[in-house]
Amino acid sequence: MILTVTPNPSLDRTYEVPGLDRGEIVRATGERVDPGGKGVNVSRAVAAAGAPTLAVLPLGGAPGALVAGLLDDQGIKVAAVPVAGETRANIALAEADGTLTKINAPGPELTGPEAEALLESVGEESAGADWIACCGSLPRGLEPSWYAALVARAHAAGARIALDTSGPALLAALREHPDVVKPNAEELAEAVGRPLATVGDAVKAAEELRGLGAAAVLASLGADGQILVDASGTWFASAPVDAVRSNVGAGDSSLAGFLIAGGEGPTALASAVAHGAAAVQLPGSAMPTPEHLRPEAVTITAEVPLDRPLKEPAT
């Protein structure tokens, strides 16, 4: 079972539009409403794959109730921590050429007791979990050290931790030695304080995160694929994508694929890439089911192309 923790969940509304013309009326050609937040998306991807999952998240107001209802409709068990503030609602505009514009609301400010209640809920629900995936930004009211406290408590209970966050929260949590961290290229560049222009730059940055405490680093490099750096070495994997429809939740789907396949080694990396490639070809934040996956199309190698320039350099 994969337990997910989403400190700042959301209600996500995605509109598909032919293009954006600022100041004009834009008519959508399609729309979706989904429960959102990185951990929520991981749970949705795990459930879509037919595996058990439990989502722990703070919820408040009418949007929070709708998030819980949507998750229940997808067969996902929810451990809701009631908060006084209203769960945020986000908007994404997906253009026909694959360009995505997102408007993310700040979300509620959690009180000290609410933050502690969230930690306690994770501890209460974590029995029997194979992995705890802690994902996304921290809401107002939670210090960057909050994830570090969560990792420490989870390890004390014998659980394995996958962490997908960025900035000060990521750096603070590294001292508690999460089992795997999953930055994208921009988050990886931010963590080491320098731009990344090649696959080799990304590998070196991932090695530095391991030096700071991460047991393994699973890094998404956008169209270039993904790398996995752990105690056994470095692996590089990629897969062809016919057309990008929306990248909302693709990284979360990728993390779900990694954890479903055991959360370590090249087999898990191949699963991560297959899930991520499938997700970007679906509308909005739809999560791939087994029939969407093309594991045979994934190329994986220990001969990492270190000199290959990144198609989207991270600054």
Automatic annotation (TrEMBL):
<keyword id="KW-0418">Kinase</keyword>
<dbReference type="GO" id="GO:0008662">
    <property type="term" value="F:1-phosphofructokinase activity"/>
</dbReference>
<dbReference type="InterPro" id="IPR017583">
    <property type="entry name" value="Tagatose/fructose_Pkinase"/>
</dbReference>
<keyword id="KW-0067">ATP-binding</keyword>
<dbReference type="InterPro" id="IPR022463">
    <property type="entry name" value="1-PFruKinase"/>
</dbReference>
<dbReference type="InterPro" id="IPR011611">
    <property type="entry name" value="PfkB_dom"/>
</dbReference>
<keyword id="KW-0547">Nucleotide-binding</keyword>
<dbReference type="Pfam" id="PF00294">
    <property type="entry name" value="PfkB"/>
</dbReference>
<comment type="similarity">
    <text>Belongs to the carbohydrate kinase PfkB family.</text>
</comment>
<keyword id="KW-0808">Transferase</keyword>
<protein>
    <submittedName>
        <fullName>1-phosphofructokinase</fullName>
        <ecNumber>2.7.1.56</ecNumber>
    </submittedName>
</protein>
<feature type="domain" description="Carbohydrate kinase PfkB">
    <location>
        <begin position="15"/>
        <end position="290"/>
    </location>
</feature>
<dbReference type="InterPro" id="IPR029056">
    <property type="entry name" value="Ribokinase-like"/>
</dbReference>
